[in-house]
Amino acid sequence: MSNYWNIILIFVGKKWSFVNVQELQSFQKSFVNVQDILDQNRLLIDEINLNHESNQPENLQSKGKFIT
């Protein structure tokens, strides 16, 4: 009976679904980690673009590496 406390009911698309709380939390944590990496890469791309727009030779070097 204690396993039922780990299940929640959520509305997905056009239907209700039962979801394991631990699996949902794991997915949310992974999603946040991926979003953080994408945000960091976006900032790096913006910085590289600004440096290249300046047309100054010292700024035409790569400032870092993309996070994979």
From TrEMBL:
Name of protein: Protein EARLY FLOWERING 4 domain-containing protein
Transmembrane segments: none
Chief location category: nucleus
Subcellular localization, as worded in the UniProt entry: Nucleus
Classification via PANTHER family: PROTEIN EARLY FLOWERING 4 DOMAIN-CONTAINING PROTEIN, PROTEIN ELF4-LIKE 4
Record domain Protein EARLY FLOWERING: where: 21-61
Assigned keywords, A-Z: Biological rhythms, Nucleus
GO terms classed as biological process: entrainment of circadian clock; positive regulation of circadian rhythm; rhythmic process
